[in-house]
Design goal:
alpha+beta, 4-stranded antiparallel β-sheet
Length: 137
Amino acid sequence: MYIVFGNEIIDSEEIKAIIEDESPFRVDKDMSKGSKREDTLAYQVSISIDELNNILKEEYEIDEMDNEELFDEYMILTDEIGVELEELMPEGAILNARSYKWDNSEDVIRAVIVVAHEELGEMKLMDITKRLLTQAD
């Protein structure tokens, strides 16, 4: 899907490739159409628990953490990694990343990533993210 990005037109497939090639995320679904906007990119992504454990092992004794503590750390870390994707996006991009689920069947954390041009504004970006979270899984 093509979106209007400032004065450019961007293909959501190009951004999907950047996310998959340059980060530990796997894009599960392009939600750009679901945003019901012509100026917003949105993706449902996942990151493996093994990947998150490798990062957490540097700071925590994960074997001593209970599931609730692990869940909190997984969600926080997923959001942090997601926000770092903004550096890989086209100039003028703003990004919001929100994790929402620990999928035990696939052993991944699921999240939604929304990208738009800075002209849209952070508040509108957060509103779009909230709406898309209700559509995810």
